[in-house]
Every structure is written in C-alpha cells, then in structure tokens.
Description:
- The complex is a heterodimer of chains A (592) and B (318).
- Chain A is an alpha+beta fold and 592 residues long.
- Chain A has helices at residues 2-25, 49-59, 127-138, 180-189, 249-253, 262-266, 277-288, 294-322, 328-347, 369-392, 395-401, 409-415, 420-423, 431-434, 455-478, 504-515, 557-562, 564-568, 573-583, 587-591; strands at residues 29-33, 41-44, 66-74, 89-97, 102-110, 116-118, 141-143, 202-203, 206-207, 209-213, 225-231, 234-241, 356-357, 360-361, 523-530, 535-542, 548-554.
Amino acid sequence: MSETSSSVVLEQNVPDILAELKDRFGAAIGATQETCDGIPTQWVARNSVCDVLRYLKLEAQRPYRMLYDLTAIDERTRVHRGDQPPSDFTVIYHLLSFERNADIRLKLALSADDLLVPTITGIWPAANWYEREIWDMFGIVFTGHPHLRRILLPPWWKGHALLKDHPARATEMEPFRLPQDKGDAEQEMLRFHPEEWGMRRAHESTDFMFLNLGPNHPSVHGVFRIVLQLDGEEIIDAVPDIGFHHRGAEKMGERQSWHTYIPYTDRVDYLGGVINNLPYVLAVEKLAGIEVPERVKVIRVMMAEFFRIASHLVFYGTYAQDLGALSPVFFMFTDRERVFDIVEAICGGRMHPSWYRIGGVAQDLPDGWDRLVRDFLDYLPPRLDEYDKIALGNRILKARSRGIGTYTVDEAIEWGVTGPGLRACGFAWDFRKERPYSGYEQFDFDIPTGQHGDCYDRCVVRAEEIRQSLRIIEQCLNHMPAGPYKADHPLTTPPLKKYTLHDIETLINHFLGVSWGPVIPPGEAFVGIEATKGNNGYYLISDGSTMAYRVRIRTPSFPHLQMIPLISRGLMISDLIAILGSIDFVMADVDR
Amino acid sequence: MSELALAWSNVILILAVVFSFAALLSWIERRLLGVWQDRYGPNRVGPFGLLQIAADAIKLLSKEDWVPPFSEKALFVLAPVIIAVTTLLAFAVVPVAPGIGVVDLNIGLLFFLAMSSLGVYSIVLGGWASNNKYSLLGGFRAAAQMLSYEVFMGLSLMGVVMLAGSFNLRDIVAAQEDLWFCIPQILGFITFTVAGIAEARRLPFDLPEAENELVAGFHTEYSSMKFGLFFIGEYVGVILISAMMVTLFFGGWLGPLLPPLMWFLLKTFIVIGFFILLRASLPRPRYDQLMAYAWKVMLPLTLVNLLVTGAIVLAWKS
C-alpha cells in the first residue's frame, strides 16, 4: 500500500513539473518517459541540460535543491527501450525536492562516438565525485570538470568497467601478473602530488606537511584514504581518496539473477544487514508488480529496525572510541551481540542474513521469536540511559565534539546529505515518514533532530533513533499480522510450490523460477529507503531477462564523504577523527 | 663489606621487583579493564592468564628487531633506552620502607623531578628519529605536553616541601606521621595527580600516542624489544608516579598493624588501580584543550596553593 500511496503523491506532480519545463524550454527538451516508479522522467538535449538543471535548482517554484544521484547507462545492447529516444549512453540526473516531496529524473542521450557532456559542478559542487565516477565507469567526458580522473578504480586500470563490452569476470581477462616493476609503477601512481590538486607546498614562512591518513589507519573505519595539508596540526585542506573497497557490486548485478543478487546487497552497507535487501527487493517488486502480504511488511520492518539498532550501536561505540573513550565500544558490542542472537534465531545468519526475498522473506518467524524480542525490549532501554551518562554526558566528549564538523541544512542539501546527518541540522526529514514504504505509515514513532549540525548532535540523533527503533519493534511485536510470509505471485523467489502438482502452468513457472530465476518484465524502477546511514536506493533497469540490465546503487555514504574537506578545514587532526566517526560511513557503502 | 652486599642486594631486589611488577601490571591492567568493560581479558595462558606476561615477553623478544632504513639510526636505538634508564633511575630515591631503598638523597624530590623531565627526551627523540610523520606529530605533542605539565608538577610539590621542611623523601614521609599531606595539600595533591598522569602519558593524557589519531604516535615505527622498552617504560612510569603519590601525599610506608612494606605496596596498588580506572572511563581531550587546561586551570591552581601554603607556614612559624 505504501508504495502506491507514495507514488500517488508523485504522480500528482507529473503534469506540474514536466508541463512547467515544457512551457519554459519548449522544443529545447525532448520526450517524457513513463517508468514503473512514477518518477517524472524527462529527456533533455545536451546543450540545454545545464539550463534545465539550473532552472530546477534555482528558479523553479518549490525547487529541486538536492542532486540526489547522477549516473549513466550503457544502452548499446538494451533491447526493450520502448519509445525512448535513441541513445547509446544515457546520463541520468536524479533530483530531489524537499518542498514538493518529489523527485525528477532527467535523461541525456549520447551517441557512442561523441561522449562529451558539460559538467554541472558549477551548479552542484556535489556533482564532482558523481561525474568522476561516470567517467571512470563509462568513459563519458565531462567538459569543464576540475579533476576528471578515476575515483573508484585504480589509476592504472585499463578500460571502463561498466561498459557492456568490459569483462565482468576475471576468467574473461588475461591472467593477473604483478612483476616487481609493475608493482613499483602502480605504487608510484598512488603518490600524492599537491600541485595536481591546486595546493601549494608552502605559504610565506611555513612549509605545509602533507599527511597521508589511510587507507590503513585505525580511525578511517575501513579502507579510506585522506591526504591532509597541514600547518602544524591544523588542517588547511584535505583530499579524500576512495575506491579501495570497490568490488564492482553494480557490475555484478548485471551477471547475477534477480534472486541471487540479494546476498550482494547485504554487503553494501555491511553493518546494515537486511536493510540493504529492502530497497532492492522493493524495486524488483515494483518492476514485477508484486504486492506483498501485510505480515511480510511488518516482518521486514522489524528486522530492518533491529539492524538499524545494531548499526547505530556500532556507530555509538566506535564514535566514543574515536574520541579516546575505551569502554563504551565494549558495552555496545555486547548489546549488538544480543541483537544478533535474535537475528540468528530468526534468519539463521548474523551480519549478512540475506533474508528478504522477492515477494516476501525467506522463512516464517520461528516459534518463540516474540519472547526473544520482548526480552530485548526490556534489556536495552536501561543500558541506553547508562550510555547517555558515560558517553554523551561526558564533558571531555562534549568539548571534543560540540561545534566540530558543523554544516547547515542548506549545505547538507547542497551536498546530498541524508539520514541522521541531515536531521542533526534540525531538518526533520525521514523517508520512513515522508515517503512511507513497507507499511511504515502504520507505525508511531518520532523523528529525532539536532540543532547545530555538529558531531555531537549527529551522535545524539542516532542515540535517540535507537529508542525510536525499539518503539517500532514493540509495535511490530504487539501487532504482528497473521498470514503468509510470501506473496502468491509467479515471480517471487523461490516460487511457491504448493500449486505445482495441480497444473502444468505453475509447474513450469516454478521450474523456470528455480532453475533460471524469474524473468522480470522490462522497465525501470527506483526505490530509496531510510537506511542506517542515510538514503539507500536501487535504480534497477530490467530488459526482460533473468538478470538486471543495469543496477545502480545510490548509497548515502558516497556524498557524505565528499563533504569532508568542506567541514574539516581549519580544524585539527583530532577533530577530523571526530568528524569521520560522526559521519558513520562504511567504505563498502561508498565504493560498492 | 656486608654493607656493600646489603646495598647491592637492595638495588637488585628493587630492580627485579619493579621490572616484574611492571610486567605484571600489563596483565593486571588488561584484567581490570576486562572487569570494567564486561569481558574477560587475557585468561587463557596459565592460571588466570598470568603466563600471558611470559608469552608477551617471548613474542617481543623473538620478533624481528627492525630499524627502519629511513630513520636516524643512532637516536632511534637510543630513544627507548633513555626512557627505561631515567624512570628506573628515579626509582633509586623512592623510600619503599625503612631500610629498603637504593639511596637516601637529601634532594631526593629534585632528583625525581629531574629524571622524569629527562624522560621526555626519549619520546621526542624517538618521534623525530623515526622519520615518520605520525611519530613526529606524536613527538611534538609529547614535547609540548610534558613541558606544560612539568611546570606545575614541580610547583605543586613545593607545598609538601614547605610543610615537611625538606627535599628528602624519607623526611617527607616521616613528617606525615600525624596527618597525610593529601589533606592539608589537597590542591597540591590534585594538581600533582593530573601532572603525574600527563607525565606517565596515560589516558586521558595519552596524546603522544593517541592511537585513534596518530596510529601509535611516537613509537609507530618501533617493534620487538625496542617497543618493549617503551612499553615497560610506560608501566614503570605508572608505578613510579603512583609510588611518588603514596610517598608525598599518603604517608608512604606509614600505617598501623601491617608491616611498612605491605602498606607501601598496598597504597601504591590502589593508586595504580585508580590510574587504570581513569583509562577505562575517560575520552581524550584535544591537544589545544589539553594545553589550555594546563596553563589556564592547573598552573593558577598550583600558584594559589603555593601562596596559601606559604602564608600559612609563615604565620605558623612566627
């Protein structure tokens, strides 16, 4: 129900903004396109794309202020394109308007022999990394981009990985060899040259120190490298370097069946477990037109909230540890074990249960699940109160994190910040409330917000969100509907078996669904949800096959990391560590 | 002859006890942290995990003793030696109990302050000789921190000296027969405690190491027994500061019923436990906050203490 209710809101806006664009730009823009997700989709010409984007951001009434996603598709082998304009490569601008609570998608067609697009870094500075990623993955050149270089793949990589003719498996490539000279050359390419980034090595009487923090450093939470330009301990500038955790999750999506891709989603935000499954299965269900039973929705919500608690507990503990407090992390990991005990009892797995299925969940809840959940609901709240005293109430911790890493609501929107980082600025925007999915509209919970947008508030917001998640879980526990745990639909995975012995049609469907996997009808759908770290979304393109034609994973941590230089200039190294902790990122969620 | 033998046995005994206690402390600390952090700590090797110390020692001794090719080799090797030597030398003046102790200097307190000041050379040289940016930052932080905290560390003890009328540590202990100095010198006690933790570079004053920020700070490049010396040096430093706190503010070996040695050990252990509890409970302040705290809060407090004590002593005497 929720999906339809949110798309109703969107569909009301379709004539609005698209007609407005038609009025304003006339023939300069092209056709519109119908998509499964109901997001108004407009094709634009290359020479007017900047004007249209600028209009949408700055001039339109109730503007689209957030560059939510920017990606591309290699359309050369796509068969079912419907009445879309011809295009070899399509660049997709996905914008979000908070005033309208609506999205718009702009598509730009390119031919394979002319892959030039004007950059929009002048309109949205946040486009910088997205455009680099597109260049890295597709070889599309953004003219006027300040640093158009590889971002996810290493600088010595040959080719562009998301092209359809780029090998997807190591077995399709030359055997890997790393002789000494090649290794040395590759190491040399990683050396940081300040001049390439427009940085000076010295200023008047001081020589700057360039400190390479990461990719292996205790406080970068994974493999994240950031090069600091230092004057003493003061940060003059910083250049984040990502891609060390890149595993080609989007490319793998083009080689895995719709069903077997689910475990890969678990590992994108590896602290979020099944929350990662949710936007993916919701998007597939939207493409396939599957309505899931009420019980499935509530089970999904409950497990998602358990993982939100687990992820926030890790954040809480490691954040305190980043500020030098040794003990909280042990308490919080103990609590996280309790969460995992429940997850294990229900799903069988712990960190990566891969438990949601297309059209349902893998299993029904086991006997006695309610007792486990109730015990946990009694167990955690007093512990949380204690943590408020030992961590958030500590004066040193406050002195370390108040007023550090501050950004305003406008800056947050400008740079694409979602999730607790956005709410910490005082903007009560939660996708569970604003665009309820999976039945969140039936739950009673508050959106905790901060005021200052600093590290401390980001921590306070997350601590409070744990309590709200407990409220949601309690409601799930008290109102768990009866019914099936999987939709009665031929495209669910694995398909229901109960009719297979009655007629040949369902038997064939079942056989195909189990052996090949389901064939999802052609179309495009995007679903974004409130994940642990912000808005996580899957933009799926089906070409009527057993595998996706293109899987785009919009992850929250990617734009969050891009913002680090902005909020850390003028601070000290210790503050940077506090900022890194407070952002709560996971490198797999950045690099995918 | 027998006097010489007695002196030697005293030296060797104290060295042995300090060293083994420092090693034991690494186990005690981990077990205590375990208790306070809802976990076990090392409990697998030997009874209660006690042999963990031996396992650690074997590990440290058998690791490759690596001197980075880019380092300033002589200073790199010298740095860990300095910290071990200075902290152990400072132990010479600690009055453990009547008849136990290496030397009885009449400027014992000054000797202790001098030795603990020399210790900073170890950190700064180690950080600089490593030729690693993280080590260098750790060395810088250590230099600034130790200098700032040294200033009021010495001053905070002058109240004690005034009350006891002597720099001799045994006289100071004897002067506490009626009342431990932690009562009349409460401000001096607080400021010395803070300075002592900073001298020992323990959380919340472990900025030179600050693992979350500087990887391992000044000893990032150290491995094997050179790292072991820093490691032992830190624990010996903790024991030293604790022993000094007991000597200066808690009446040293004085106490009823139990033999003096037991009292001294018991009090020292309680202070060490307090050090470990601090580590379990506090986050780390930022570098500039640490400096502001030293100069804007601690130094004025120390000076106030000095003036008030001086005035009272003057009024008392006249």
